[in-house]
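Q: Could you fold this chain for me?
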Amino acid sequence: MSSHQETDSSRPVDDVSLTDFQAKIRAMYYEKDVQRGVDGTFMWLMEEVGELASALREGSMEELSGEFADVLAWLATIANVAGIDLGQAVRKKYGDGCPGCGRLVCVCPMDEKP
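A: Sure. Below is the predicted structure, expressed as structure tokens.
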């Protein structure tokens, strides 16, 4: 049997929600993060985005996976410092579909940012 047991929502049991992930990052790092502040935390996020860019160009799948996780962790970190609930923010902006056209499958022109 796979370690990824399926649930009714077809999401693996060991998958983590964005809200749960942000809470886990907060529990692990919040005290350090608030001392660093938004500006210092943003710089770490940008460093990780740069590492992700490098991995996208020439990294292995394992390296890509790690860099995506790092970017998400630093995004959660800066959201914690700024007092933003990522789960709520995503639901509010994308919960009903594309913020540009309002459809679940975006039909915005390719030259426009939805």
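A (continued): The helical segments are 18-58, 61-82, 86-94.
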